[in-house]
Design brief:
Elements lengths: L20 H12 L18 H7 L6 H25 L11 E10 L5 E6 L3 E5 L2 E7 L8 H11 L6 E7 L11 E12 L2 E15 L2 E11 L17 E11 L2
Antiparallel strand pairs: 1-2, 1-9, 3-4, 4-5, 5-6, 6-7, 7-8, 8-9
Length: 252
């Protein structure tokens, strides 16, 4: 036996070549278009970039793992495309800016043809936990008569409950495509005088130009549902109060 051992040769592990960037981009594009299975080896510099060509060179069908992988790719991309369809069609927006040109009109009716309107131009919009939250500061509500304004603020107890809020699920609001109008009803929740009640809002949205919308909404509430005393101004006041909102909105 030889006194010398042969030195062990280092084992070299073949590294899988990394596909060139142009090949990776070509394959990604083919998957997105749903034609990965039609990949043409001649369309790339490296025929090995095409998973189907590797199988065909060996006269074999694509492996089960590859088929499942492509199936999952197509499924995920289908969901992605559906999301893009909703976004591009205007049903869901990436962000919404604060409204402008707002007018909130509150209408009360009474006996003897009494009609009272209060108007404010303060309207704030935020997004909270999947809701669009419209907030109206009540101190600016103006009926045209100073004394009546003070009485109304007293009935609403503005000192303790300064705002009225409307919550609407964002995914339930439809935005039309350019030049189109969407008109429907949506459920929401109004908080007034510290009490929250469900309500139905009828609204119309028009996209006057790309990314610019004009919104008109109406609803009706019974102020007794919110613990508000019906005003006594010498005539009988109907507790059913109409609310109308108009404003402009733009995508963020």
């Amino acid at each position: 036996m030889s006194r010398f051992r042969k030195a062990a040769l280092p084992v070299q592990v073949a590294q899988k070549p990394r596909r060139p960037s142009h090949v990776r981009r070509a394959f990604a594009a083919s998957v997105i278009l749903g034609h990965a299975e039609r990949c043409d080896p001649s369309a790339t510099r490296d025929a090995q970039a095409c998973p189907r060509s590797r199988g065909l060179e060996r006269n074999q069908a694509p492996s089960t793992n590859l088929t499942m992988e492509l199936s999952l790719h197509r499924r995920h991309l289908s969901l992605f495309a559906f999301g893009l369809l909703l976004t591009g069609g205007g049903l869901v927006r990436a962000g919404i800016n604060s409204p402008s040109g707002a007018a909130v009109l509150v209408s009360l009716q009474g006996t003897a043809g009494l009609h009272i309107e209060g108007v404010t131009h303060e309207l704030l919009l935020t997004e909270r936990e999947g809701d669009l939250v419209f907030r109206v500061p009540l101190s600016g509500l103006d009926t045209g008569i100073g004394l009546r304004n003070r009485h109304m603020r007293g009935y609403l107890d503005v000192a303790n409950f300064p705002d009225a809020e409307l919550h609407v699920r964002r995914k339930g609001v439809a935005f039309p495509s350019a030049g189109k109008t969407a008109e429907t009803d949506v459920r929401g929740t109004i908080t007034l005088h510290g009490i929250s009640r469900p309500c139905s809002i009828h609204y119309r949205v028009e996209q006057v130009q790309p990314g610019e919308y004009r919104v008109h909404g109406t609803t009706r509430i019974d102020i007794r549902d919110f613990g508000i005393e019906v005003p006594a101004w010498g005539v009988r006041i109907d507790p059913s109060v109409g609310i109308q909102v108009d404003f402009a909105l733009s995508d963020a």
